[in-house]
Amino acid sequence: MSWYLLILAGLFEIGWAIGLEYSEGFSKPVPTLGTAVAIVASMVLLARAVEDLPIGTAYAVWTGIGAVGTASLGVVLFDEPASPLRVAFIGLIVVGITGLHAVSGG
Question: pTM (2 decimals)?
Answer without folding.
Answer: 0.91
